[in-house]
C-alpha cells in the first residue's frame, strides 16, 4: 500500500501531495494551519481509499481532529516533529494500528486511549517531555519496540520489569541512574532493567571513579615514556626504550579533591601501522585520549589521529602532548585544529627527560578525565566485589574459565547466571577484561589481561616465518609461535580471537582431513597478482572518503573471504571475488582515499550487491564516517570515456524522493534517467542495507539529542518524504532477523559446505516454525518480495534452504 505523503514546497508555498489522489488546498498556507473543512475532506479521502499508512510528520500540527478515528484501516501513523500536546480520544478507534511515531512533539503524558491499541507493536515517543514512565504502556500486549530516549524520565515503576520481553527498549538520554554502556544495548531490555532494579535493591551502592586514558601516536613518539612518567615522575628514560607491541595497560591512581581515589587505566598503543587494525576494538567512547607528537621527527599526522579518534570514539576529549626531545619546539596551529575538532581540549609541551611541563600535562589529565560523563555513576556493590576479585587474580593469571568466573560470583552472593554474564559484559565494555559472550569458543574464557591477549595475537603478525609466507600460516605455525606455557593451552582461543579482531581468516573448503590454513591479510603481498579481466559491459562503482581510516579493505577481505577467486587472487590493497556468474574487482587506493569496484559476467548485480552490503556494514561501524558512493554516468559520451561523470548515490536517492527522474550530465549536458542509473547498480532504489539505515533513522531519530525543530514556522519548512518503502523496510527487518539466526547456527556447522548449509537451514526453519511472529513475517516477506529478493536480502549461504522452508509453510 502507498503512504499518503504531504510535501510542503517552499517555492509555491502550497501543500502538494506526492500522490495524485491526496491534495490539500493551496489556501492552507495562507495562515499556516489546516482548517476543519480541509481536515475533514482530507480524512474522508484517506478513509475512502482505505489507506493503511499515513505520514504527517513535520506539518507543524498542534492538534489532531477527532475525525482521525475514521481511519480504522491505518496500520502506520507517523506524527513526528509536530507540536502535539495531546491526542484525541478517538484514537481508540484505530484498532489496526501497528506503528505509531510521536517523536519530537510536546507530550508530557499519554492518554488512556492509547491502551486500546491492542495491535500496536512499535511506539516511538523520543524527544518529548515525559517525566514519568507512561503507565498505559503496560496495557499494550503486542508491543515489541519502545523508544523513549531524550525525555525527562528519572525512575522506572516496578511493573516495567515485564518489559524485558520487548525486542527494543531505548531509554538513552533520560536522567536515569543507568550507565550509557548499559542503555546503549537497546536490543537487550532485560539487561537494562536488571541493572536498574539491582541498583534499586542495593543498600549502599558504590560510585564509579574510573576511566581509560588512551595514549596514541606514531611509533617512537614517546608514548611509552609518557606512560611511565605519568606513573612515576622519577622514572629514568632509556635511550633503548622498548617499543610497545600491540597494547600495554597499567594502572595509575590519583586523589580527587573530595578525597576519593580516581583509578586511571592507561592504555599504551603500539604506533606501528600493523597494530592499527585493533584500534576499532579498544578506542572506546567515554575515555580521555592523549596524542603524543615527537617534535624532533615532526612526523605526526595530526589529522589522521584526530580523525581516527573522532570516528571511533565520537566526542571523547583529546589532549595533544608535544614531546620536545632535546628541547626542540614544534608549533602547531591549535586554533585551526580546534576549529575542526571540537573535542581537542589542550596542546601542551613537555620534555620527558627533564620533566619540564610534565606537571601541567598531569594536571590537565586529572581535570579532563574527571569531566567524563560516566564519572560518579552508581554501581551495585556486588559488582565492585567481583571486580576486586578479578583484579587480584590477574596478578597471577592471564585468564580464568567461565566456570571459575561463575564460582567467583557465587562466592560474592550472586547465583543468577544471567546477572553474572551481565557483570562480565559491563567489565568488558570498561576494558577491565575481555569476555566475548556471543562467540561459541571465546565465551568459555574470561581474559583478565586484555594486553596479554593482544600481545599474543600480534606475535603471529610479527613472526618472521609468517611474514615470509606473505601472511599464510597453519595451525602448526601457531603452535610454534605460541609455544610458551602461557599460550600453549589456549591456542584455539587465541586463533579465534585473531579472527574476531579481523586479523585472520581460515581458507575455506580445504577438506575434512586437511590441516587448517589461514591468512593474515595485513601481511598479504603488496603486488597485484596476474589475472585476466573482461572490461566489456562492466558495472562500475567508486567510493571516495573525506577521511579514510586504515583497515577498511582488510576487514572487507576477511568478511568476504569465502568468495575470493581461487583463494589466491588477493593482495594487500585488493581482491577478486567470484561466483558462478560474475567476478568483482575491489581495489583500495589509500593515498587518494578511494575504493574502486568493477564487476563483469553474466549476472553481475547480485555480486555487486554483496560488495556494497559488506562495505556498508563496515562503514556503519564508524561513528561519523563521511563518504560518497559514486555511480558512473551512462550517457553515450561517458560510456566511451575512461573518466565518466559520476553521481553520489545519496543525491540520486534525493532525486527519486523529489520525483525528479532526470539529471544533467556535466560532461555531455545530456539528460540521464536517474532510475536507470540506480538500476545499473542493482538498486530498486532501496536495497536491504539502505533500508536498515532508513529504519534506524526513523526509529530513534539520531544517536544523540538534537534540535527537534519544535514550533518552527510551517511556511519556512520543507517536508520531503520519499516513495513508499515500507514493504522494503519490513523485508530488511525480517531478513536481518533470519540472518542473525543463521549466523548463530553457523557457529555449530560449516556454512561454506553444502552439508553445513543444509543443517543450518533446517535448524533455522525449525526455530522459525516455533516463533510464530517471525514465521508470519517471513511468509509476508516472501509473498511481497519473492524468493530471489528474500534470498539476497538474507545474504547467507544457507538462505536458499531457509526460503525453501518458508515456501513450505505457505504450501503446508
Strand count, sense and barrel status of the largest sheet are: 7 strands, parallel
Indicate the proportion of strand residues.
15-25%
Low-confidence stretches at least 5 residues in length (pLDDT < 50)?
A: 1-31, 685-726
- Number of helices, counting only DSSP H or I runs of 4 residues or more: 28
**Rg computed from alpha carbons, rounded to a whole number of angstroms:** 29 Å
Write a structural description:
- This protein is an alpha/beta fold and 812 residues long.
- Helix 23 (688-700) crosses helix 24 (726-745) and helix 24 crosses helix 26 (772-785).
- The protein has a seven-stranded parallel β-sheet, with no helix packed on it. A seven-stranded antiparallel β-sheet has the order 24-25-26-27-23-28-29. A six-stranded mixed β-sheet has the order 12-13-11-14-15-16, with helices on both faces.
- Helices cover 35% and strands 17% of the residues.
Topology:
Blueprint: E1 3-4, E2 6-9, E3 14-17, H1 28-31, H2 36-48, E4 53-55, E5 76-78, E6 99-101, E7 122-124, E8 145-147, E9 168-170, H3 180-183, H4 189-201, E10 206-207, E11 210-217, H5 223-231, E12 247-255, E13 261-269, H6 279-282, E14 288-294, H7 302-313, E15 318-323, H8 334-340, E16 344-350, H9 358-370, E17 378-379, H10 381-394, E18 399-401, H11 402-411, H12 417-430, E19 445-447, H13 450-461, H14 464-468, E20 472-474, H15 475-481, H16 485-488, H17 491-500, E21 505-506, E22 517-519, E23 539-545, H18 552-559, E24 570-571, E25 574-578, E26 582-589, E27 594-601, H19 604-620, E28 627-632, H20 636-639, E29 646-648, H21 649-657, E30 662-664, E31 671-673, H22 674-680, H23 688-700, H24 726-745, H25 754-770, H26 772-785, H27 787-794, H28 799-811
Parallel strand pairs: 1-4, 4-5, 5-6, 6-7, 7-8, 8-9, 11-13, 11-14, 14-15, 15-16
Antiparallel strand pairs: 2-3, 10-17, 12-13, 18-19, 20-22, 21-22, 23-27, 23-28, 24-25, 25-26, 26-27, 28-29, 30-31
